[in-house]
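Hey team,

Filing this mostly as a record. A colleague (T.K.) asked me to run one chain through the structure pipeline before their review meeting, and I want the input and output archived in the tracker in case anyone asks later how it was produced. No errors, nothing strange. Just documentation.

Input sequence:
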Amino acid sequence: MTAELVRGQNHPLPQTRLEIRISAGHPIVAGATLGDERGTVHGAEGVAHPASPQLAGIEVPRQAAADHRLAVDLDAMPENVHRVTVLLALPTGVGGPDRFGATAAPFVAVTGLDGTEIAGYTITGLDSESAVAALELYRRQGAWKVRAVGQGYADGLAAMLRDQGLEQGAELAARINEAVVRGMARSVAQPPPRSEDDGRVRTATAGGGAAPAPAQPQTPPQQPQGAPCGQGPVNYQHPGRRTAAPPPPPPSVPPATPGQPARPVAGDASGWTMDERLYNQVWGMFEDLARTTAAYRSAVDFAESRMEQELDRVLSDPRTRVGPAADSARAEARARHTDLVEQARAAFDRDLAQLTAEAEVVEPALPPAYARWDSPVWQAYQVPMEMPMALRLGELHLPERADLRIPMLVRLPLERGLWIDAGRSGSFDGGPADPGELRRLAADTAVTIAARLLAVYPAGEFSVRVIDPAGSAAGSLAPLVGSGALGEPPAAGAQGVSAVLASLTRRVDLVQMAMRSGATDALPPDLDTAEQLLLVHDFPHGFDDRAVTQLRYLADEGPSVGVHLMMVADREDARDYGPVLDPLWRSLLRLTPVADDHLADPWVGHAWTYEPSMVPRGSQVLDQVLRQMVRARQSYGR
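Output structure:
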């Protein structure tokens, strides 16, 4: 049963691997300090914050958000750490509220890894405070407990850090806020919303702007929990508070047979929204397949090693090398090998059957951002109202079961650019032998990913610009050009390359300066603050040294202010630039237009085969989705 804590109350922790979930009505900064018995923090290295998110035993988010998840492993804490204090603060210089009294009361929950809530605490009574020590995990006689603190600081994060013994609290607070400002750079305020009499309702989006709703009758939006109702007081009761507990299986799902694995259910992972649950479930399937395959391969290796050792012992003794005894020993060794392999295969097949059943349930339930292009959800596509958690780039599988495909999802907004390999890098085993056909497939892959990005963002919140120096990608770019999804024609020639790169470099510079100085309202009115993707085809043709330098700058600095890079290139063609291009190559995520096993997982290092998510041949779904997106953008004046 969940313990609802009040200020000063403590509660024992039944486990040491935990999550701390934070929900607030406005983006806030979350961090943690590691202190001794008295709570004193000995140096900045004892503070986990967005600029240094990982310490031994704890990981905190890298940017401000309304919802946070902190990962805690108390067993991994250094022996001199006796208190872990969770800190919340309002970011400064980003145009938001400057005191907690003007926001919904923050709610903090300590949960197990399965999402089961152990203790919750609603931080009430805050007014002029802009930072608060929310709760602390503390060690007493070898056991860990949680205590609700709720200590606010009107002088902000610097005062809170100084109170915990950090003399350099002001410097560290400034460093933290600078990191947060960089992380929130993509949340530059959009133009003011339309008036209430324009027939549309506008709702806040994750990007910090506003997304227009369709001009049609709607249910009035629900008021956020804990938000002021009219001019009344803040509602601290949270009658509909979201929890991380997974939903129960729908009534239509039959119960599992006793002694058999539970029937798979789409969205049964932890998460506060169905999209988050599906995202976590997909990654859980990926981890499960990686680990069960590792176990199977290890068992087979063990069986082969054992058989070789037994055969070596037989052959090493001249007296047993030949004759009936030797034949019997060899037969027994091979029989034991076969038995071990069969046992491993039976366990592996059982796990694969369960994962296959889960994939068959999960795949049809995926939203457009996660779904294949042949999924029925694209036939019912509607322009979304907010940015999704992640995007599907393709599918992953292992050679032991090539038909079991796991969606490859990457978080949004993109933290890394993409390199679509247009040449043979020595690892392609299949695919077309014609280099021209491979380049065409690479361009098609890039256009498909760009189209998916346009489709899953709210109308006007994402745009694509294209550099095609020689115009060789005209056929692949036809869906983007013909639908009007591009705001301007693809740039061609050296002059076009220079103009686009200069424009995007100027945008990155201006937004970075505005965010650092807290003057986002001073940005030029003609500056497009929407997220942007630069698609560069056939690199390095049309690029001089200055253009390459600008491209590297955009790859390094662009993602923090909403400018992302996708290159279609052959690494061999770019080798003339030598080491100048190596940092760019390493910073981008390499994808291939044909099946290739160049990706590895972070747990056991399997070589996963990647296949891009392409539109089925002859399907019109891509054109339909793009045209619908363009109509929505035009109707909202974007």
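Quick notes for T.K.: The longest helix spans residues 274-316. The longest strand covers residues 17-35.
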